């Protein structure tokens, strides 16, 4: 077991965490990134990325994260293969965290970039056809289904927003919901029902996704009627599971303020939490946009604010010493 000290401790290694690391390292803060259970974040399970600025061709998510990590390390970031299992932020700064390895990490500032993950249905074919017709992000993957038939599974705001977004690419969008009414906000429902590109299937659940993972990908959905129990098939080229996301905030329950869905609350327009010196960035605090580029932006903001926080502490210390 060892103790690692840094001016900026970053928990999470997706676009938010690595962007914070790049900016923090360039500010001579010698950041430490504890990578967690999924190094690189959700992009490591995303194949084609076509909307990250700076690349005219389709790039691979894992490659992009490797490049971000290489850049972070090049400018002075230390990457740690560990998973944080407990944190002490009540008595900081400095803030203390303990890894699954038993190592202790001490940071004068703490940047939380643990991200969020899409909720899945957990039915056969879902994971096997992931990236091959099955997705959890229309704004990420909708472009690949231009002019094709697609389905969205869900009944809340996320599902309706995804269905509406997909009409930019498809004239044949089907919303599948397990009940006979939506949970989405009324204004979203009104927009949905007015669209001549969207049809709705009520009282239906997806039993399984069918297709060829090694070949053409998804071909159809097997649906079950929640009232009659009857099954039917729906041929689609793409299906988007839109039943919400779960932020990785279990570590911080009772320690930091969260909304009803578990996302960390920050000062509007900033990554600042209610605890001075603790910052949250990326999908762990953003349930609206959930894009790699917005996560990277908030990671930058967290690093800049962390640098300012430390400068303020140092100035206060110098003032106190001068007054003695």
Automatic annotation (TrEMBL):
Its cofactor is FAD. The keyword Flavoprotein applies. Its EC number is 1.8.1.9. Binds 1 FAD per subunit. It comes from the Bacteria. It catalyses: [thioredoxin]-dithiol + NADP(+) = [thioredoxin]-disulfide + NADPH + H(+). The keyword Ion transport does not apply. Residues 7-299 form the FAD/NAD(P)-binding domain. Keywords: Disulfide bond, FAD, Flavoprotein, NADP, Oxidoreductase, Redox-active center. One of its GO terms (molecular function) is thioredoxin-disulfide reductase (NADPH) activity. Homodimer. Belongs to the class-II pyridine nucleotide-disulfide oxidoreductase family. PANTHER family: THIOREDOXIN REDUCTASE 1-RELATED-RELATED (PTHR48105). This is Thioredoxin reductase. It comes from Pelagerythrobacter marinus. The lineage of its organism: Bacteria, Pseudomonadati, Pseudomonadota, Alphaproteobacteria, Sphingomonadales.
């Amino acid at each position: 077991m060892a103790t690692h000290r840094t001016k900026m401790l970053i928990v999470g290694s997706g676009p938010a965490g690595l962007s914070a690391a790049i900016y923090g390292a360039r500010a001579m803060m010698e950041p430490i990134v504890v990578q967690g259970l999924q190094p690189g974040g959700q992009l490591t399970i995303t194949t084609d990325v076509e909307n990250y600025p700076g690349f005219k061709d389709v790039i691979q998510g894992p490659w992009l994260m490797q490049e971000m990590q290489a850049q972070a390390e090049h400018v002075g970031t230390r990457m740690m293969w560990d998973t944080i299992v407990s944190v002490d932020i009540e008595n900081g700064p400095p803030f203390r965290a303990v890894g699954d390895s038993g190592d202790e990490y001490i940071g004068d500032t703490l940047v939380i970039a643990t991200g969020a993950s899409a909720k899945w249905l957990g039915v056969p074919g879902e994971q096997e056809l992931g990236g091959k017709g099955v997705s959890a992000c229309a704004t990420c993957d909708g472009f690949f289904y231009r002019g094709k038939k697609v389905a969205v599974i869900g009944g809340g705001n996320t599902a309706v927003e995804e269905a509406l977004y997909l009409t930019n690419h498809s004239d044949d969008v089907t919303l599948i919901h397990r009940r006979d009414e939506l949970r989405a906000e009324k204004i979203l429902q009104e927009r949905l029902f007015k669209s001549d590109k969207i049809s709705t299937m009520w009282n239906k659940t997806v039993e399984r996704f069918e297709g060829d993972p090694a070949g053409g990908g998804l071909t159809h959905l097997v649906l079950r009627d929640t009232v009659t129990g009857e099954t039917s098939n729906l041929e689609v080229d793409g299906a988007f599971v839109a039943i919400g996301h779960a932020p990785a905030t279990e570590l911080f329950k009772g320690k930091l303020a969260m909304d009803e869905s578990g996302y960390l609350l920050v000062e509007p327009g900033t990554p600042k939490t209610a605890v001075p010196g603790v910052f949250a960035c990326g999908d762990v605090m953003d349930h609206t946009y959930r894009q790699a580029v917005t996560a990277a932006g908030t990671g930058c903001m967290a690093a800049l604010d962390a640098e300012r926080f430390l400068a303020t502490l140092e100035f206060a210390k110098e003032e106190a010493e001068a007054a003695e």
